[in-house]
Write a structure and sequence with these properties.
The chain has six helices and six strands; from the N terminus they run βαβααβαββαβα. Helix 3 crosses helix 4. The protein has a six-stranded parallel beta sheet with strand order 2-1-3-4-5-6, with helices on both faces. It is 42% helix and 18% strand. By secondary structure, the protein is an alpha/beta fold.
Length: 196
């Protein structure tokens, strides 16, 4: 599969590159655009301030420009936290999207958004201060209304960005479980594409 993988609010950290390498080792083509022009952060306060300074519209513009050269191939959009939010926005606006893999994050959904039978998989901590139970319940109803085919996996006791081994949130067991399921999801998308 062709995967566009967006980094979190911490920037294009080693964990994102390692995730891309893991996906490539499974036979996928992966791009990891740097929406922050090389900036990375160690604290959520610094990263959030920088993201706010750039602005949501600028981040989305950068993401669209990064994905545009590859979108004709039929992309699986994926991302971590903020990057998942961006991936979701792009996938719901791309009628050639092959799938959506959300790690640690979601986003608002426009009332008129359509994603007929788009395969979507979400992996999130339970509880997660950035993806509360109320928010996720509303998100699940909204994304189902788009026509997407949604799976949600929750990981009790894990921190928000539990797949990044360089952050305090890291949970090895939850991270490995996430990657097993996510790789299976991507394999199923590839099989479906091969049968088409």
């Amino acid at each position: 599969m062709n995967i566009m993988l967006f980094h979190s609010t911490y920037g294009l950290r080693p964990a994102v590159r390692a995730a891309a390498d893991r996906l490539r080792a499974a036979g996928h083509e992966v791009w990891t655009p740097d929406l922050f022009d090389g900036r990375t952060f160690d604290t959520v306060e610094e990263s959030t301030a920088f993201s706010a300074e750039l602005g949501k519209d600028e981040l989305l513009k950068r993401a669209v420009l990064a994905a545009a050269p590859y979108s004709e191939r039929g992309l699986v959009y994926a991302g971590f936290s903020l990057g998942a939010s961006i991936a979701q926005t792009l996938a719901l606006g791309d009628d050639k999207a092959r799938g959506l893999l959300l790690l640690h994050g979601t986003s608002d959904i426009a009332p008129n958004a359509r994603a007929d039978e788009l395969p979507v998989q979400l992996h999130v901590a339970e509880p997660d201060p950035f993806e509360t139970d109320d928010w996720l319940a509303a998100w699940y109803l909204q994304i189902n209304r788009t026509g997407a085919d949604v799976e949600v996996y929750r990981y009790a006791g894990a921190g928000h960005l539990y797949t990044d081994p360089d952050l305090p949130d890291y949970d090895e067991e939850a991270a490995e479980a996430t990657w097993r399921v996510a790789l299976g999801f991507l394999d199923s998308l590839r099989r479906d594409l091969d049968r088409a």
